[in-house]
Amino acid sequence: MTLTVALIVMSASASIGLSGLIAETRVPPGQHDAVVARTVGGMISYTRWPEPRPALRICVSGATSYTKGFGRIGQSAGRQVATQIVTPGGPTRGCDVLYFGTMTDADRQRMLRSIRDQPVLSIAEADPACRGGTIFCLRVLPDRVGFQLSIDAVSRSAVRIDPRVLRIALPEGDAS
Amino acid sequence: MSDAARLPSLRRVLARMHLRVTLFAVGLTGLTVLLAGFAAIGAYAGQNLHLIGRSAGYSAAPAIVFDDPVAARQSIAPLLEAGVAGITLLKPDGTVLATAEREATDKSLARWIADRLFFAEPVDEPVIHLGTRIGTVRVRGEGSAVAAYIRDGILGTLVCLILTGLAAWLLSRRLRADIVAPLGAIADAAHSFRRDETLDARVPPASIREVEALRTDFNALIAELADWRQHLRRENETLSHKASHDALTGLPNRAHFERRAAEMMTEARAGDASFVLLYVDGDSFKPINDRHGHAAGDVVLIETAARIRSCLRARDVAARLGGDEFAVLLAAPSGADAAERVTGEITARMAEPIRLPSGETVTMTLSIGGGIYPGDGQDLATLINRADAAMYAAKGSLRARQQGV
Predict the structure, then answer these.
(1) A165 to chain B: which residues are within 8 Å by CB?
(2) What does the alpha-carbon distance between residue B341 and residue A150 come to, in Å, rounded to a whole number?
(3) CB of B61 within 8 Å of any CB in chain A?
(4) How far does the CA of residue A1 sit from the closest CA of chain B (Å)?
(5) Does A25 contact chain B (CB < 8 Å)?
(6) What is the residue extent of each domain of chain B?
(7) With contacts defined as CB-CB under 8 Å, which chain A residues touch B74?
(8) What are the residue numbers of the active site of B?
(9) What's the rounded mean pLDDT across residues A106-122?
(10) What's the CA gap between A174 and A138, in Å, rounded?
(11) Of B59, B61, B66, the CB nearest to A39
(12) Considering chain B, what is the average pLDDT of its residues?
């Protein structure tokens, strides 16, 4: 038991060094869209905005592969959710969640700069190393969906992430 | 006596009673405390399981949301503390997401009993996220803590029982000193009084009021008994004196005289010594009695006896055989000259007149005959006969002298 606690403390400190934490979800074949939607909903449910938001707006930008289930995110997020498309590098005003698909680094940097210190939750669909500057980075594998958490990105944002999510996220080395 | 020996001693009875009372009290108290503590610990253990369940549900909620078994296990593992056998996370459909279990190290009977009594059923706590139930935490408790309490409680009670037994033993020793020893002293004194008739065995003071009262009464009783016994002895001495002595003159009577004469003869025979037996008879007693009355006769007899006695040594014996008949034993060694001297002294003393109560005076003359052992007789009867004959011879010569005058 003591060993387990030590392991968790160690993993937490190690993950800060790597600036990323990973959690993961098993995926039944052919259901990646649903699992990704549920994972994003879970992220939203553990995120706290400075002012309560009864309805959230998710802005999806760039080329995405797993957004077909976003229509049902509301179930797992626990509130009303509206999805809209934003052009890469375009304005982010009105977005509560910014979901990044594949786009150029310059576009992403521009968009991230525009939401710096703003109450916007940023999620990257295809950034396995999680160095792009978003708070969450999805890791979609054939049999499971995981995510990493960037502590640096959380500190640059006005939204707050429930510490329990930090606890369940594993460092990269342990993700298996 | 054998019945009394089979009975238990007072100390044993007191010690047994002490032991029973204290053992009962300690046993009852220990059992009560044990059961009360047992119930309280059981209740706390149940509450603890609910608390652990809620805690596990809170920290594992994200793992359920993200459907992550590894994270779920890591969330609940730190909560596996003493008293928790296992935590299971169940999804709403009843399938298991993660399980953490502790291996039981305590396999004692007490643990088994505690498990059956308090932890037979697992505790279920719902996991709530965003107002809906997303899963269930199932916590199974284990009774090692309660078992340790049972063991410690029984051990403590046993130690208390042993200490109590020791205390009862010490108390009974104290009782022995305070009650049993004084009672034993009284019993011993009574026993020695009965056996040895010693009356100086007084019982020493006791430290308990009742025993002390008993002791005082006992000593008083002994003292009274001693007085009574002494009185009885004096009475006996008086009676035996009366039986062996002449009431009028206080001299030994015939029976006593014969006993002493026989004793003296035995001693003389053993010591190869000689001794003298004198026979004394009043010559003029009957006329005095006739002329002056019986009271005067008594006075004359008393005075005659006193005068005969006054002529003898302490070891010599003077006895009144009856009427005006007396006998004297001159203790060995004595012979003819002693017989002569004593006869002369008695005759001389009797020559003095005796004053009667009426104021008149009379003179009593005596005839004395002697026999000397062993020359005049080897046995008492012969010796007495010789003395008797000598006395009558003396009386005859006196009469002849008187008639001749």
Answers:
(1) 62
(2) 159
(3) yes
(4) 6
(5) yes
(6) 2-166, 199-244, 254-404
(7) 4, 7-8, 167-168
(8) 324
(9) 93
(10) 16
(11) B66
(12) 84
Identify the domain containing residue A135 by its residue range.
2-174
Separation in Å, CA of A114 to nearest CA in chain B = 29
Q: How far apart are CA A76 and CA A119, in angstroms?
A: 20
Q: What's the pLDDT tens digit per position in B49-74?
A: 999 999 999 999 998 988 888 888 88
Which positions ≥6 away from B352 have C-beta within 8 Å?
B363
Q: Please answer whether residues B341 and B349 qualify as being in contact, where contact means their C-beta atoms are separated by less than 8 angstroms.
A: no
Q: Could you give the ipTM of this predicted complex?
A: 0.76
Q: Convert the pLDDT of each residue in B210-253 to its tens digit.
A: 888 888 888 888 888 888 988 999 999 999 888 888 888 888 88
Separation between Cα atoms, residue B205 and residue B177, nearest integer Å: 12
Q: What average pLDDT does range A40-67 have in this prediction?
A: 92
Q: How many CA atoms lie within 13 A of B135 on its CB side?
A: 28
Q: How many residues does chain A have?
A: 176
Determine the length of chain B: 405
Give how far A169 is from chain B: nearest CA, Å.
7
DSSP B248: T
Total of domains in chain A: 1
A87: CATH: 3.40.640
**Cis amide bond preceding B252, omega within 30:** no
- Percentage of chain A lying above the pLDDT 90 cut: 41
Rounded CA-CA distance A36/B287 in Å is 172
CATH for B254-404 is 3.30.70.270
Calculate ∠ Cα B243-B320-B322, nearest 5°: 90
State mean pLDDT over B151-163.
Answer: 86
Sign of CA dihedral B306, B309, B314, B315: negative
pLDDT, residue A13, reads 35
Does the beta carbon of B91 lie under 8 angstroms from any beta carbon of chain A?
no
Cβ–Cβ below 8 Å for A1 and B59: no
The gap from C-alpha B165 to its chain's centroid, in whole angstroms, comes to: 28
CA distance B48 to B118: 12
